[in-house]
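Exercise 7. Given the components listed, write out the predicted structure of the assembled complex. Treat all entries as one system.
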Amino acid sequence: MSSNDKHTHDGSPSSPLSRLSSLSPVTLTIDGRPIEVLPGTTVLAAAQQLGIHIPVLCHHPKLSVTGACRVCIVEINGQPVTSCTALAENGMEVTTASPYIEGLRKDILDLILSDHPYDCMVCERAGDCELQELAYKYQIRTPVFHGERRIYPKRDGNPFIERDMEKCILCGRCVKVCDEVQGVGAIDYAYKGFGTKICPPFERDLDCEFCGQCVSVCPTGALVSKPSLCKGRTRDVRTVETVCPYCGCGCNITYDVVKNEVIRAGSRPETINEGWLCVKGRFGFSFINSPDRLKAPLIRKNGKLTAASWEETFAYLGERLRSIRDMHGPDAIGGFASARCTNEENYLFQKMMRAAIGTNNIDHCARY
Amino acid sequence: MANDTIEIKVCLGTSGNAAGGEEVLRMFRHYIFEKGIEARIGKRCSPSKVGCRGFCSKDVLVDVIANDSRTTYQSVTPIMVERIVEEHVLGGAPIAEWTVKDEYASFNAKQRKVVLGPCGEIDPDNIDDYLAMRGYRAAKKAMTTMTPDGVVDEVIRSGLRGRGGSGFRTGEKWKACRSVPSDTKYVVCNIGEVNRPLAEGNPQAIIEGLLIGGYAVGASKGYLYIRERYHLSVERLRNALVQARERGFIGRDLFGSGFDFDIEFSFGTEAFICGEETALMESIEGRRAMPRVRPPFPAYRGLWGKPTVINNAETFSNIPLIIGMGSAWFAAIGTEHSKGTKIFTLSGKVRNNGLVEIPMGMPFRDIVYGIGGGIEGDKALKAIQVGGPSGGIIPTSMLDLGLDYENLARVGSIVGSGGMVVFDEDDCIVSVAKFYIEFLQRESCGKCVPCRIGTKRMLELLTKITGGTGTEEDLKTLERLSGVMASTSLCGLGRTAPNPFLTSFNHFKDEYLAHIREKKCPAGVCTALITFSVIADKCKACGLCRRACPANAITGAPKVVHAIDAAKCVKCGACYRACKFKAIKKQ
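Answer.
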């Protein structure tokens, strides 16, 4: 999808042309209920404004239109049309759930499930899987259109993302988030026909920046976080809202916690960072429960690091810094601040270096 | 034809090339030069290459035009050249045993070669040949005497419909594109497999059509979209572009009209889906060819988001004719709603295989028995598959149906890109449907569910039926699946993919049921459903079958009637073909 050729699904018309014409709204009828929307709004978005639920799999509100899964079909003026791609027009008559449409929808789901492993009992995403929900809603136990399934070996040497391509329904969300949001383009479609597959170039192991955005948008268990494997499903966790400690961006993070251990990091779409995270925020939480983590300050005594109290540590620090300054001058001391501190802490740190110690030798890990 | 010239035209399309045409042409030049022919007969003697004239099964075809009479030689090889030069060119006596037979006349008689006309006449690498037959007059006429709207109206009046697939009205498409205000627009010519003879035989017509299209819609950039693998087409088009540019037909201020136009190649990948216009645009933009959502249609928002007209080479080749000779001339050919001619690749079990151009509305009977010369070996015609892989299968009962857009749509088929395959009584209709579904499955881009998985499931069910394990329930599943695919697929490929099954099931239900109920393949094609046995009365115990059998499944000795061990038989049919006494029964 070219960058100037997108309309997003969240109801906001994005082309300059449609924004100009947004002066006159269009009126359509969905399931007998009239609604007025801005031109450029999709039928799906209009239905959502009315609180009418239309199932989707490939659609993602923050990504461009795909139209691949066909699950969101509705009847527009008697024709089956995907509601995520159809733009609202004056006088449109939309039926979202006639027996005909529900039948087609069920058959499409049936086709998807006929090429999907039946291992919900051991799947990481069980209970949090969009496909499972639809299978439940439409009560598809054994697909009518059964047949061959794609069998792929699970092999990907990267430390962060588990890729189980047998569970992939080729919705294309991961490809789009990687390209449109992250600007990386590490994965794309390969091959044709039934063997179509999403993979890194030449089917090599994933070698990207591992932001994990693809994991966050995957509707099934095809992409999951490796550090979280077997540690708890979504319904078994306690969630803790926090702010990412890694840099000044201050992304909002939701940690999934099981038995006082952080097992997964995610973010909600309504946050300041729109639900997106980078590799550090998404995967860099193992320090929290690490046995190597420092829990008290350490002072080297007789060549050996030994735990000390904060009082003892500060007294020791003050004494040593003063003596070094007196003996070698203030420029013998340098300070290195961390991006994991707040702005205020960083300000105070440089103040201490400049005013108390008297040196400009101050640097910061976020300074490239 | 001037009497002071002897013209020798060697067919050098892809097929002519493959048959050794280059060497034949070289030999003609060699002998004519070496023997000083021109001086001896006092006439110009110019051997030249021409494009495909359709009768590819008898390539290399060579026309010798002397004294206003044209003689066509078939299956010419380099060693035949010397005698043709000696006896015909020099001696003035055509060599009767080497000339084309009656079939060539009947092959051509019912055709109406409008677009293909120049392909066997002019040298595709020489723009002067094209100019000599009023080339670029239409472009000049359009740009100097007509407004762009006038051109669009003329194309609308002609009733021309897209020759690439769905048959959308070309003029309406142009009109839509013209109506969209935009500083940049594009015209794209898709040169598919079936268009290769046009690119190889008369590339300038494609360029002129594209030029007029650009002028009509207000585009200053045209693309020739073609697979790089079609080397000869690319080479001739490239030559044609260079020559057209030299003569000032492409560039700035064309014909003093102030209109600028440039043409560029865009090379496609090896994928059937690249013929779908939105996938084609993705491909030009450098991405994987997967269809975009429509609407917006390309005429409103196409290549790089700009209004774009996409037509195939056959459509564009018609444009100079329409503008040059007028829409009324064009509209006089064909039927009420399908105007002009259509090029088909006639193949399969007909006697005369080749490339044919027929006026719209011609009955299938005339195509198969007239142009095609009937069925090979005088077998019974079974069905005709029209419109490429996702076209439909037409049964014998519809032989008198006129071939046009409406009629084909009515019987569940499409005109498509112009494939036409003839099947006889020895072809199994289930296998035929399976063959096409297999192709479509392989070529599905994989984007949408109904096409990607649907074609796979269809293929599996058809394989089940041809394998003898199909059930009547499977037929119901196939029908249901076809409905889902036709109504919910993203693009035309998936929507028309069930056609081979639906049309064949519609007309040959009994054959499907024979596979399922009686576990028999009436045509004797599906190996799982046939058995070979020896007819004892006819067996002469010659041992030919025994020696031909690769599985040692045949027992017998001299003067002992042979027998086939069904358990060992691999059903390859070698015995059936080897037997000279028709003593092997296949059922």
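Discussion: The radius of gyration of chain B is 27 Å. Chain B has 25 helices and 18 strands.
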